[in-house]
Amino acid sequence: MHSSRESLSSVPFKNMSNPPFCGAWIVMFLIAILGSCLVAQGEIRFPPPEFESGYTFPQTTSPAAQPVIREYIDAAVLIGGLLLASYLILKRRSRRAVFALMIGSLLYFGFLRDGCICPIGAIQNVTLTVFDSSYAIPIAAAIFFVVPLVFTLFHGRVFCGAICPLGAIQDAVLIRPVAVPRGLESGLRLIAYTYFGAAVLFAATGSAFVICRYDPFVGFFRLGGNWNILVIGASLLLIGLFVGRPYCRFLCPYGVILRQLSRLSKRRVTITPNECIQCRLCENACPFGAIREPTGDWPEGEYRIAKRRLALFLVLLPILIAGGVWGGYTLRNQLARVHPRVRTAERIYLEEAGKVQGTTNVSDAFRATGQTTDLLYEDATKIRTRFGLGGALLGGFVGLMAGGKLIALSVRRRRTEYEADAASCFACGRCYKFCPKEHERLTKSREAVAGHA
Amino acid sequence: MTDKQESMNRRKFLREGLWGACLAGAGTAAGLSVAKSNSDNTVWQIDPYKCIACGNCATYCVLEDSAVKCVQAYAMCGYCDLCTAYLVPEPKALDTGAENELCPTGAIKRTYVEDPYYEYTIDESLCNGCGKCVKGCMVFGNGSLFLQVRHDRCKNCNECAIAAACPSQAFKRVPADQPYLLKGTDQKP
Fold this sequence. Notes:
The structure holds two protein chains of two kinds. Chain A is an all-alpha fold. Chain A is built from 20 helices and two strands. Mean pLDDT of chain A is 88; it is low at 1-23 and 30-42.
């Protein structure tokens, strides 16, 4: 501590070319040296003057933080928005109204509230709450995490379709949807599962909130930010012109949870208001590939091949899980490097061992704390051990999901009508107007209204 | 027919059970969170005794104009004529000439109080939070200048981008009703 301050003190005196101030600087230097020897950092080297002119100290200003009520207002807007979304999607069945609500939500949660707090990021707060006993979760984060889950259990993914600002910004730019083959879609979705697992791992170990760090659209909401992230966000929006909602489908970690809950939901989007007449008009209506056509049993010839393929994938599943566990465990040291404590330990180790020259801000700051390197290395080892278990679990989870996807792609569910896939449907309401039965319903209700009048 | 109905019933039972379990899970998550949550919200703040004025605050904030600004604890200031936070190491003169100022944005205002004392005030609209003056004051002076997150600007991100880049882990969450860690008013740790 002292030595670093003295070395800093000497910097201004390298080229003393200004005689009038030499004296002053030397006095300063002496006082600084004296000060650093006698008093600890932050204590007074130059006693504050006794003013004779009646000067009074100005007050250091401290503008207040946002009132807590603001967060409760956000939570109320979220709940109100979800209720309205459920009504508009399931009862009114109006895409136009859903779109208006979506834009409203984009303006409020996105541009007005700067995209923070959001349920996607709240995954990490909840995870940290579970794993770190000293962490106190902001109550708004807890509400934002749970409320959309509950709504999904009742009404399907109404949050994705109408409220999520990240979904909304992508939905708004979708102009020419291109179909993604189902196998490719499933494969790409593995990225989302991996991202979800990694986000939970890094949050649980207290390393980083990666979802927030790599939120691709928050920069647009704030009209500025990290250049790399802005480029990623812009590319996602560019892709989003043709591939509907790429973040939601292939990356969103919250979507991973909502997909599973949506499978169980009490009510959800049905393309037809009453019965499917199998007219096939809605077949290509969904830009997100969430409409499933009616299927019967396997055709005679394909059945045997399909059965064999399924058996193969069932055998492959434990192999994939084992491979994932091994891969995740192998990567533990790389994963652990996300934790700042481990990075500090690695830097200090290199410096102490003489493998690198010079110090960094990080190593200087560590030495200034006066902690021993042994304690630092011990912490780093503990964190690495935790990453060993966490990495193995993450790898196993990804393997399980990969195997599960292969199995899901090789079984056939019998379906008698066109329906929206429970997991993939974002509840945007685009398919309604493709159904002739829907037009019939609208005409009837319009007539009923006219008859009333 | 009965077989089919039975299997349908079983499937329905499973579904309902799973649905209930999920709802209970969400409820548990909510309950646990509420039990552990802080009813007063927290905000980000810099511990001025840990800060090493590395300059990351000026560049890592998600805002174009960083939410971190320099703050003056007047009661600690020495009101020196030769202020090492205000002047470059070898000033041509002890005055307000731009060539003598250490601050890259000219955000420090120097005003004469009485002989030989000068008051130094930060113009927050100009300050970019680089901490050059903080370092100057910390190393040679009283350390009355320090960096603070200004909450009229801070977006209170879930993960503060500067905190993630802070080499000395000086950032921490503090209660929103006491959102500053001001020098000179608190007990030194």
